[in-house]
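anyone seen this seq b4? input:
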Amino acid sequence: MIPVPLRILVVLPLYGGSLPVGRYCVSALRDLGHTVEVFEAPAFLGAFSALKELHVSMDKHEGLETSLLQVVSQAIHAKAEALQPDLVIALAQAPVTRQLLKRLQRDGIPSAMWFVEDFRLFPYWRAFAPLYDFFFVIQKEPFFSELRTVGVEGVYLPLAALPAFHRPLTLSALEQDRFGSAVSFMGAGYPNRRTAFQALRVPDFKVWGSDWEEAALQGVLQDNGARVAPEDAVKIFNASAVNLNLHSSIHAEPVQHGDFVNPRTFELAACGAFQLVDARDLLPELFVVSGADRELETFTSMQELRDKAVWFVAHPEERAAVAKRAQLRVCAEHTYHKRMETLLQAVRTRRPDWLARFASATSVPLELTQDLPEGLTGVAEEAAWTELLARMHLPETTAFADVVFRLRQQPGTRTPFEASILFLDEWRKQYGK
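predicted toks r here
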């Protein structure tokens, strides 16, 4: 059992597909009762983008980008120093440098990476994985063996959905008209997808997302190839009779062999939306993909994709039954709440002394009031302390330092008791350990 609340710093990526995953992790960790601080790396994206507009040499641009990355990493370290977290969690593509990871090690702050990318496409993991205390991945072999070559034991942690966000929706008539279709695909235009959907001929087909060749998808591509917000993606999932889920590849062959399962698989299922997904090695470990009780429909060729898409458009009861089973599976086993619980438990298992500070934590710091100046003795009375914890939705075992941290995060006027707690903390810093 993991004590709560832990102090956790989540470092988001600047942009990309792992950014919403990071936000879902934050939401789940907070729901689990932990104190979560977020480093909003996207706030710095404008600065990185501005460097590209300088029109300087490649060497000069790389030097400036490296310098800016160092500044961002220093900001992350400053936030970690202020929070003194029990754990720093970084998502793939987060602006974390090797120097920052070494500083965290020096400060005794554990770090974990959730590498929610294909290790073959993003080989920078080789330089960074050894500096993280824990390295979570969405692939197994041969990635595990590759990690061992750099001295790292990877931990398998597949992606998930956030049922509070990825859920069935009742759409208005206007929303259904805008987002709905018999067959749809939502995602970026990777080479294999471009090849697949340029040749796909099915009635009432819509493609959503960026990086597509508009001329090749005339009348099919929506919103001129604009990037789709997560909120609109959920509407597309709900509004489409058949959602196509073709995993991305930088190679042009439409349907290819692959291992990891993308986030869209879980998100579509959580929405109660029917999907056709290309077969993946790790998919049968997560869903039932064959037999009468199958939870997903898969395909291994473009012909099979087309045939199944046409058939399921015409058979709403069958697709509804499959989608419902998938939704039940995701909500029971594949949520970000489950993934974060698994991640924290894995950290504790691999570092038994990780949460030693909770062993001596007391619910009421009465002993700390004994050396207060005259007139302040007794401010931390049991009833007032209990009422404060209840108001902040914290358990009675919460450590004093965590209460102080949570108080400092809350805006507004302090009650006399809250002010006394903050005074007590400053007194400790000045006159006692």
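The radius of gyration is 25 Å. Confidence is low (pLDDT under 50) at residues 371-377. kinda curious what u guys think
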